[in-house]
Each structure stands twice: as structure tokens, then as C-alpha cells.
Design brief:
2 domains, Arc Repressor Mutant, subunit A, 359 residues
Length: 359
């Protein structure tokens, strides 16, 4: 009997859920925002209402589908889904992308799509099924795709295939891809890019992988990034269940700070400042004075939250032996290591070098 895990997003979340675009992650790094930025470069006349939604991070399924439709119109070719999938990599999906790309196995990666796929748009109902020979991830539209279904599915397949390619070292001929639509005219392009067997007029979109590949260790696995990203995905997932009015403002601010620290960790060679109060309030679509007032009501401040997050992260970073103390300081926004050391001693009673040597 196969394992079946299903997340029903059609009725469980409101259409105006707050995506990871604006919560817990800089909107300039989210998939939706990057798509919107790309469209603005080639088509500046995007509807102003949609632009404002994206800036706030309040982009529902209909708006996300609108972005796909706009891309299809601008590319002027039926294979736009493959084209878009080739332009984006998993890391451009924010914490969700980091979690999927750094997962220990392909099974973990696909499980994340089922558990947290809503973080990049609740337009599909996902299901994972497994038997002794294969593992299949299937997804059916949660909203009316009209003529866009095949392209959106091709985009999803294009994103997933990169992860499969890394684990199987390019051996894709045993994969199967199911499409709900009829066979398109560009079948040869699909065959060349996806590999494996292509099936059409199916009851759902799906990708089937031999079980022998699912538990192979991924060459992209990074335990630290995997664990941190999973924590953030869990946090962001819980936050998608609320509209902004019900959102815990402290969690939102902490999410932005955590996101910046994780991004800094990807480029530890240089110092990168953490977001300011003005930057975070702008991302949330509120004034800085209103943010200050809301945090005061929670008996805290932006400065206090930033220091608390740096304090917590400093211990995590020092446990990573590949990071020097100077690099850890840079990740936390300190341009001067001595300032970081003084702050660390104030937090823990001894300097970072002493704490690291005692572990």
C-alpha cells in the first residue's frame, strides 16, 4: 500500500494569503517578485494594482496566474513554460528553494513541495504516492487555469528536473511525465528537455521517478542550510494562514531579519548590512512610525528584535567551523569584528573565540 500525503489548498487558505514574497523574506528574492521585476523590465505597463500587491507580498493565486499569462503573452510561443523554467533556479524561490535544493535526498525534496508548495503559490493540490518501484508526485489545478495549465505544469517540471538531474547525474530516461492536456506541437522540445516518457490526456499532471533514485545522497546537500531553511519554511507556512491584519508583527520583522542573515551567509566573503526599520516597514507596506507603534504595543522595538536575532544566530554561526569569526561577524552585519566581539561578550559573558574553543 503506497504512502499518500495530500495538501488541499483549494479550500484551506483564503485567496489573499500572504505569500513568502512579503513575509519572512525580502520580496526582491522571492519567485513572484523576481517574475514581476522581469516583466517590468520588458513590459513597464504592468497594472499598477498588481505591482502594489507584489510590493506588499499580498499576491493571491489569481494574480500569480496573471503573471504566468503575461509571460506567455510576451514570449509569444506555446513552449513558454519550458522557457520560463530554464530562466529560474530553485534558489530564486527563497527559503523554500534553499530547502529543496539543499535537501539530503530527492525524496526529501519532493516531500517539501507537497508540504510547503503553498509558499510559492497555492495554485495546485499536491499529492505524493509511492510503491515498491516508483515515487510519483502529482498536482491538479486548484483554480481555473483555462489555457494556461500545460505551461504552468511545464514550468514546474522544468524546475524539478534540475534537482532530479543532480541526483541521477543526467540519467532521466526512466522518468515519466504526465500532462492533463493533449500532445502539443512542440513535443520534440519537451522530449529533449525533460527526457523520459511523456504521457498526455491524463487525469492530473505528474512526474514518476524510480524509487532507486529517491534515496541516493544528493551532491547538493548542505545540512546547515537545509535545517535553517526548513525552520523558516515552517514559520512562513504558518504565516500564510493569516491576512496581514491578523499577522504577528514581531514574527514578520524577525522573518525579514532571519532572511537577510541567511542570504548573507551565502556570500560570507564580504560584509552585508542587515535591513533597517525603514526597509522592513516598506516591505510590509506600512509606515515606519506605524511599525514602531505596533512593536511598542508588543513591548519591544526594531532594535531589540534585531539584536535578539543576532544573538541567536551568532551561536549557530560559530558552530559552523568553515566560518571564521570575522566572516560570522560580517554575516550578522558587523563591518568591524571588534564590535561583534564586544556585543558577543555582552550577550554571553565571554568572547566568540572562547565560546568556539569550548565546544
Amino acid at each position: 500500500m503506497g504512502l499518500v500525503v495530500q495538501v488541499d489548498m483549494a479550500g484551506g487558505l483564503p485567496n489573499n494569503v500572504i505569500f513568502a514574497t512579503g513575509i519572512g523574506m525580502d520580496s526582491t528574492d522571492s519567485f513572484v517578485a523576481m517574475m514581476a521585476d522581469y516583466f517590468l523590465q520588458i513590459q513597464p505597463a504592468m497594472p499598477s494594482a498588481l505591482i502594489e500587491e507584489i510590493k506588499r507580498g499580498d499576491v493571491g493565486p489569481d494574480a500569480l496566474l496573471g503573471l504566468f499569462r503575461e509571460y506567455a503573452r510576451l514570449r509569444e510561443k506555446p513552449s513558454w513554460g519550458i522557457d520560463l523554467g530554464m530562466r529560474f533556479n530553485l534558489l530564486e524561490f527563497g527559503f523554500f528553494g534553499y530547502a529543496v535544493s539543499s535537501a539530503p535526498t530527492l525524496r526529501h525534496s519532493l516531500g517539501l513541495l507537497v508540504d510547503y508548495g503553498v509558499l510559492v503559490g497555492s495554485i495546485y493540490d499536491y499529492q505524493l504516492e509511492e510503491n515498491e518501484q516508483t515515487l510519483t508526485i502529482s498536482f491538479t489545478p486548484a483554480i481555473d487555469f483555462s489555457d494556461m495549465g500545460a505551461g504552468v505544469a511545464e514550468f514546474a517540471f522544468s524546475s524539478l528536473i534540475k534537482q532530479v538531474f543532480a541526483v541521477t547525474f543526467g540519467n532521466l530516461d526512466q522518468l515519466k511525465f504526465g500532462f492533463m492536456d493533449a500532445q502539443p506541437d512542440y513535443i520534440q522540445l519537451l522530449q529533449e528537455y525533460l527526457g523520459g516518457e511523456l504521457l498526455f490526456n491524463q487525469s492530473s499532471f505528474f512526474m514518476t521517478i524510480p524509487s532507486q533514485y529517491c534515496d541516493l545522497p544528493s551532491p547538493l546537500y548542505n545540512r546547515e542550510i537545509w535545517e535553517l531553511s526548513i525552520q523558516e519554511c515552517r514559520k512562513q507556512y504558518s504565516m500564510t494562514k493569516y491576512t496581514y491584519e491578523r499577522l504577528n508583527i514581531v514574527d514578520a520583522v524577525n522573518g525579514y531579519i532571519d532572511s537577510a542573515i541567511l542570504r548573507n551567509q551565502q556570500g560570507v566573503a564580504s560584509y552585508a548590512a542587515l535591513p533597517t526599520s525603514a526597509e522592513v516597514s516598506s516591505k510590509l507596506g506600512i509606515s515606519e512610525s506605524y511599525l514602531r507603534k505596533q512593536l511598542l504595543a508588543e513591548k519591544t522595538s526594531f532594535r531589540q528584535l534585531k539584536e535578539e536575532r543576532c544573538q541567536d544566530w551568532s551561536l549557530k554561526l560559530l558552530k559552523q567551523e568553515q566560518l571564521s569569526i570575522e566572516q560570522a561577524a560580517g554575516v550578522l552585519g558587523y563591518s568591524d569584528t571588534s564590535n561583534f566581539s564586544r556585543a558577543f561578550k555582552r550577550w554571553f559573558g565571554q568572547g566568540p573565540a572562547a565560546v568556539r574553543s569550548s565546544d
